Amino acid sequence: MSAIFCGVDWAEGHHGMALVDGDGGQLAKLRISDDSAGFHALMELLAKHGDSAEAPIPVAIETPRGLLVACLRATGREIYAINPLAAARYRDRGSVSRAKSDAADARVLANILRTDRHAHRPLPADSEAGQSVAVLARAHQDAIWDRQQMINRLRSHLREYYPAALAAFHGPGKPGLDSPRARVILAAAPTPIDAAGLTRSQLRTLLKRAARLRCCIEAEVEQAMGHQALALIQQLDAACNSVDQLAAATEVTFLAHPDAEIITRFPGLSVLSGARILAEIGDDRERFADARAMKAYAGAAPVTRASGRSHVVVARTVKNQRLASAGHMWAFAALRSAGPRAHYDRRRDGGERHTAALRNLFNKLLGCLYRCLRAGTLYDPEYAFVSPVTMVA
Fold it and tell me: How far is 383 from 368, CA to CA, in rounded Å?
């Protein structure tokens, strides 16, 4: 029997799917709901066309996450997450009319596997422990971003009527608006008038001194702004609590993973930052063909653009943004260690800017991490960062 390929056009409430054979002929098409009934209907159709545990039919879909993807991965088949931009380019190969439908898009995805399966990688076979770390680490990072948005909104609001609070809590050397101290005090004194009645003399003096800079605002308006500030503080409290809870859960789950010891031995990586690195690279050792592939995925490796007489090397823009962000902070924190600092200084002395030198250091660290994970060995600074003099000798 010829090979069969499945394409699924994913949507929020329903999915279109299509099956094609090795010659590109459409064998079947189906529209399924995003629930267990729809999944079973898909499985029945695949089984009708020869799907089995020994020879599962591969599936192409435009997203790596979701209920349907999780169910398909549980069957042990290869799942290919096709970038929507790439799928759009393939669609233009078959039609110039720009016609679009769910069934046609599903057929395009199936044909991508038929013709160019070798050019796409299936989703990694991460362990359940690795997937748990990924869920929590990403949720923790999202919660941090949400918290920062709430801090920005509160800061903007306080600037309008309550600069005393900003002078007391916001700025270099200050605890920050998200600190427990600031949230408790602002909840008790959401307006300058309320702050003036606080009993602690030191805090009252600080707030009164800064309050002299505020513009003249009517008491009624100030009270209304105080109510709005209380609402923002409550939202900020919830955001801060979410960050703390997810951080604790992430630490427990990550430390239970077998790769945690190797990752946290690297300079600049804490438990939480190490969890973010593991969340993005996964624990499937066959996911990346070599260290260069992992570096490209992280955006640490540059891109060469050569055409005719033009030849430039630029930073990579298509990358895993979460991993690139975690890598930037990893490299920055690693500067406190001798080996990474010497490597960074050599790059800077060679004319590179700060960002480029950090990216190169991340590239170096990521290569070391790849080799340590593959070999199951711990980080050794003697081998990771060999000085140029030692290499020449």
Answer: 9
At 70, the amino acid letter reads A
* Contact present, 211 and 196 (Cβ < 8 Å): yes
Please give the full DSSP string across 63-79, using - where no structure is assigned: -S-SHHHHHHHHTT--E
Torsion of CA 197, 203, 208, 213, to 10 degrees: -130
Q: Distance between CA 208 and CA 192 in Å, rounded?
A: 8
Question: Where would I find the H helices in 283-377?
Answer: 291-298, 321-334, 338-349, 354-375
Helix axes 321-334, 338-349, angle to 10 degrees: 100
pLDDT reading at 324 higher than 90 = yes
- 350: Cα separation from own chain's centroid: 32
Query: For the residues of 236-298, what is the DSSP string, one character each?
Result: HHHHHHHHHHHHHHHHHHHHTSTTHHHHHTSTT--HHHHHHHHHHH-S-TTSSSSHHHHHHHH
Task: Please choose, from the candidates 16, 11, 21, 38, the residue with its C-alpha nearest in 3D space to the C-alpha of residue 103.
Answer: 16
Highest mean pLDDT among 82-96, 178-192, 271-285: 271-285
Cα–Cα distance for residue pair 113/60, rounded to 1 Å: 7
What is the C-alpha to C-alpha distance for residues 8 and 106, in angstroms, rounded to an integer? 5
- The residues, ordered by sequence, that sit 6+ positions from 293 with a Cβ below 8 Å of its Cβ are none
Decide the pairing of beta strands 303-307 and 310-314: antiparallel
- 176: Cβ–Cβ under 8 A, 6 or more apart, which residues? 151, 169, 170, 182
Nearest of 40, 53, 50 to residue 19 by alpha carbon: 50
Q: Do residues 326 and 306 touch, judged by C-beta distance below 8 A?
A: no
Mind listing the pLDDT tens digit for each residue in 255-312? 999 999 999 999 999 999 999 999 999 999 999 999 999 999 999 999 888 888 888 8
pLDDT in tens, 373-386: 999 999 998 888 87
Helices then strands, counting H and E runs in the chain, come out as: 18, 7
